[in-house]
Amino acid sequence: MPHYPELYILRHGETEWNAQGRMQGALNSPLTQKGREQAMRQGEILSGIDLTGFDIITSPQGRAFETAAIALARQVDHLHTDTRLREIGVGTWAGKLRRDLAEGRDVVEGPDGALELYEHAPEGEGFAALELRCAEFLESLTRPSVLVTHGITSRMFRVLATGNKGENLVNIGGGQGVVFHLKKTVQKRLD
Fold first, then answer.
1. What are the binding positions for substrate in this chain (predicted)?
2. Active-site residue 109, yes or no?
């Protein structure tokens, strides 16, 4: 059973492309007003938690970095970036509407879209490569950490940190404007 340091994991707030149902991957879209409010809500959740001794690490992608800045501005002096926290690559499907990509496919829409699309994106990263990237990152952690990342990447981190490697990414849950706390393989959603 894996044992990683204590983690708080945040997904970035809603972006314009999230609201439109577009695949983002490596591309960036600005936070909406709702997305900024979600980041402020995450900041409220974290304000009651002593983050002394925690590393604060964010994806360098604009939407995650902006969320981290809003959510953590009152508690931390420095945000560190790590490319391993970036969103899963979606190849040639970046910028395309999920509904168009799902047409004629057997997919299930969820809060982060149809997860099957992320696995099958032409020239995309795929779940196996994402799992290797996320596992390597988690193994490198030496201190408790706050991670600000993306929908699919957050799910993979949490599946690995809970030791539910066989668990479907759908079942681990998702959402924006919330914080996931992981300690000793137990996940708790903080709203």
1. 11-18, 63
2. no
